[in-house]
Write a structure and sequence with these properties.
The chain is mainly alpha-helical and 65 residues long. It has one domain. The chain contains three helices and no strands.
Length: 65
């Protein structure tokens, strides 16, 4: 199944959805791409906190919290 997943495409689609949301304030800047492997998705220990950390790590040093 991992062969059939295009994680980069999935992230790009998710990013487009986030950017299309009608928000009261501008969202934080998000990276155009992140490093995410099929094994990350299969890992039961890989949850929202790990995903947020991966996204944060993909931002330039000066833009991280």
């Amino acid at each position: 199944m991992a062969r059939h997943l295009d994680i980069e495409d999935l992230y790009a689609d998710a990013l487009a959805v986030v950017r299309s949301l009608d928000m009261r304030r501008l969202p934080r800047r998000l990276p155009e791409a992140i490093t995410l492997l099929p094994s990350d998705l299969a890992d039961r220990g890989f949850g929202p906190d790990q995903l947020i950390a991966r996204i944060r790590d993909a931002l330039p040093q000066g833009e991280r919290d």
